[in-house]
Amino acid sequence: VRAIGLQRFPAGIPETDDFVLLDLPSPPLNAGGVRIALKFLSLDPYLRGVISGRHLGHAIALGDVIPGGGVGVVVESDHADWRVGDWVQAETGWRDEAVLPADRLRRLPASVPPSTALGVLGMPGLTAFVGVQDILRPAPAQTIVVSAALGPVGGTVAQLCKRAGARVVGIAGGATKCRLAVERLGYDACIDYRDDHFVAELQRACPERIDGYFDNVGGRVLDVVLGHLNLHARVALCGLIDQYNRAERPPGPNLGPVIAARATLTGLVVYDHFDRLPHMLDALLPLVAERQIDYLEDISHGLTSTPQAFVRLMRGDNIGKALVAL
Amino acid sequence: VRAIGLQRFPAGIPETDDFVLLDLPSPPLNAGGVRIALKFLSLDPYLRGVISGRHLGHAIALGDVIPGGGVGVVVESDHADWRVGDWVQAETGWRDEAVLPADRLRRLPASVPPSTALGVLGMPGLTAFVGVQDILRPAPAQTIVVSAALGPVGGTVAQLCKRAGARVVGIAGGATKCRLAVERLGYDACIDYRDDHFVAELQRACPERIDGYFDNVGGRVLDVVLGHLNLHARVALCGLIDQYNRAERPPGPNLGPVIAARATLTGLVVYDHFDRLPHMLDALLPLVAERQIDYLEDISHGLTSTPQAFVRLMRGDNIGKALVAL
Hints:
- Two copies of one chain form a homodimer.
- With 326 residues, chain A is of the alpha/beta class.
- Chain A contains ten helices and 15 strands.
- Chain A has a five-stranded antiparallel sheet, with no helix packed on it. In chain A, strands 10-9-8-11-12 form a five-stranded parallel sheet, sandwiched between helices. A two-stranded antiparallel sheet of chain A has the order 1-2.
- In chain A, helix 6 links the parallel strand 11 (210-215) and strand 12.
- Chain A starts with a strand and ends with a strand.
- The interface between A and B is large, with 139 and 138 residues.
- Strand 12 (229-237) of chain A pairs parallel with strand 13 of chain B.
């Protein structure tokens, strides 16, 4: 069995010398096991985190085989469900042959090419499907933006959003990719983030601003898109390619832990909710009247004390609600 | 009528000389109008954005009266609903007397001190109420963290979350504030963000990590809390005091526009959703089989091409799903 192992931990963008070709003994077929000759290996951006030990839960040591999905054909089977010649998908790692227990295998449909089990009909396609259903929830005539527009996640997100009636704008690197996004994947437009006029071009492609954004990259692209969101926009935070190859995290609020926690951040502006003031008063007024809900006040006296009281508020020197009594 | 106007646009933290005392003619009482002698003026952090012209929609010019909420007593009325002596709340600005149309006035309940209409039972209380109901949704035994813990928003958020059975940890500046948060507002603990051991103390106060965070400040405090979120945590982005007094925005993804757009950012990790693979295949397999959903593949050949193919993926040089065919 030949395999690709980790030779050294990459610094920055990986180099081919970070990897090494391994020649491993062919494992015996244990009871209930299945031997697979691999036909396709999946390469995915999340592996960059794995080989630095930064991915959720996963981490590998020097000399280990690089993990990842594979598609192959059964060449030997000790399990009744699997026959020689069956196409399967499994987590195999970067190797040309794998022996796995039968319950770790997924059967491939015959109606599509087997490689799709690693892309549009595999983990990336599922990512897109869930992101569109749960987070983006596109509606007709809305504008949805997708970064890494040609990848198996972005490409599937875009086509699902198009089918929901949305206008879909891609973001990709380079003119060739942007042309293919429109011609092959049905994007209404695709903007080159490497272009000097990226921001202006994105604005031009999104004249009604942005209702949903599927983010695979983070960094400047995310920041620019956040600046063009419509009211109540939804953003799926799914990838941070921009920082996978950095040794140190970029400055500013780090959204990596937000992805890891599957957390939700929501902007709150009270102006939208004045119609709920009566409900709030129904709930809180009796509690405040009975001092079951307490409050602190920081009271300055006299109109001319107002500027100084505001300066204190800005310095955080007040304790509780800042008021001026006249 | 005396009022406080804007003398010059503040640079950084405002100074008292940025403001000026104005002596304005007392306006006549128009038909249906009400004259109010103000008793309390509200000072709120959002005003820092207003006096720099950066707040949503609002902006003021040099010489203008600073806007803001006020509470006062009716001293003259041309409207049947309002009598001399009634307590009212309104948007009055920083002045000692105001004339307003009757439909801009809110009547105050007699059961609580009038000043509460600017705090716990006013706009800040409504902010807290909506944020807890719509975004934090605290459940018993969950850990909720609140920054600007003693303010009228934070203090109300905390007590509503306590009433829902959550454990509530505040973040404030200085030992005095932290003590008052626990003694007066019922926080289970309150951590001083100025303390050298802020991160360690926060971790100690949140041994089960953080299920909900009400953010009034942004900056480093937000970043630290994001690093300690539990799975499916909720974060209400409500204020950015940390950057209100900065001329230039800090580096990294800017969450100000996320607040302005009332947008929702949600972390997506596909590992949680493998049970939905059959649903995804039901939806997508026929479409892919009929090429109604298309995809792009970037195929390298041979196991030894894998490292180079991965390097290309990391450089963004691939077009479509990166695969190695064996």
